Amino acid sequence: MQFLKSLYIHNTFFWYIAILAGCFILSFWIPLLYPITWILTWVLLGLFLFDIYLLYSHSRGVVAERNLPQKLSNSDLNPIPIIYRSYYPFKTYISLIDELPQQFQKRDFEHRTNLLKDQKKEFEYLVRPVERGEYVFGNLNVYASTPLKIIKRRFVFQKDQKVPVYPSIIQMQQYDFLAISNKLTLFGLKKIRRIGHTQEFEQIKEYVAGDDIRTVNWKATAKQNQLMVNQYQDEKSQPIYSIIDTGRVMKMPFNGLKLLDYAINSTLAFSNVALKRNDKTGLVAFSKNIETFVPAVQKITHLNTILEQLYNINTAFTDSDFGLLYARVKRKITHRSLLLLYTNFEHISALKRQLPFLLAMAKKHVLVVIFFENTELEALISSDAEDLQTIYHKTIAEKFSLEKRLMQKELQQHGIQTILTKPEQLTINTINKYLEIKARGLL
Questions:
Q1: Where are the alpha helices (DSSP H) in 147-228?
Q2: The DUF58 domain covers which part of the protein (predicted)?
Q3: pLDDT, tens digit, for every residue of 202-231?
Q4: How far apart are alpha carbons 19 and 12 in whole angstroms?
């Protein structure tokens, strides 16, 4: 049974059969062709048995290995390398089929190549998951055939490998690397002009050309008989909370990714940047209940805690309770903090229902409400109208787009910071707002 399960007929063999069948038909009119066709039939049978011998005389034949990472990164292109090698003493034709997880819905994966004796090759393909969770890679199937291409032998490797898909680790590392190399402007991060000084005093030092004369410490100058200035540093260890709305409004997908996952990816990348700048970061996820609450801590290892919590967050199909969120924030977050609230409002009436709770949180904390542009509506608005129905659609789309801007103005009039962003630009705009607030000393 093991032999029969691994034995497959090559497509070329059916061409040989078709040619022989054609010769038998032609022999009805050309009798001389009939014995020749029978000879070719026996030759093909002999080659069939010989091909079986060539492929099965080597127990090892071909080996292959799929090198999966420990974690896959959600919404990113993740490379999956496969290394394979032939031990046959002849040129081997390879057809490699990897059974991808059912989440990708891809059933036509195939890679074809050929290998010489003892030759080793590596093949790499990319996968882009759009859901967090556990993904199961099935069999790695390798079909080997000789230059005769009559039969194929199947080799099966690495059955049912499991790998978790976490929030975008690649995106987080990307921004981390750019921050270290001081190239964040390549991705759209802005240089923010500092306004005034923070309140955290560092030291008194001698005046050098270029120092701000407004920082001259006259008492120290009189004692030292030379100009001395106060030196300040950015305030550190300030608590910052990412608050993620997991209600039904965050279920909306753009480019295959839910708004919730955009918010989760942004939270991870932003938390890493904030921790590197010595601030405390925490996490809150809520809908009808407070599903996750991680107190703000200033440890780089705290990022692992945030990552694990983000991995387990799911979207609910209910309206979120902002009153419950306000009560938890009031009770648990006692120090003035920066609150980044990821949510979405499609109608201004929805915003006005929640506005009293947002204003209550903004009295004690610096609240930034982050909500999303509907990029599909924006594409419809920018398209040309060719008939009456398209004009109606564009008019309705413009109404919804205007409401988004009115909601932003409404929040700003009440002193609440806002970010109205496209889903793809969420991380950049969030980090920019964080740098702006720090530079202006609002926290």
A1: 169-180, 218-224
A2: 204-353
A3: 678 888 877 777 788 888 888 888 888 877
A4: 11
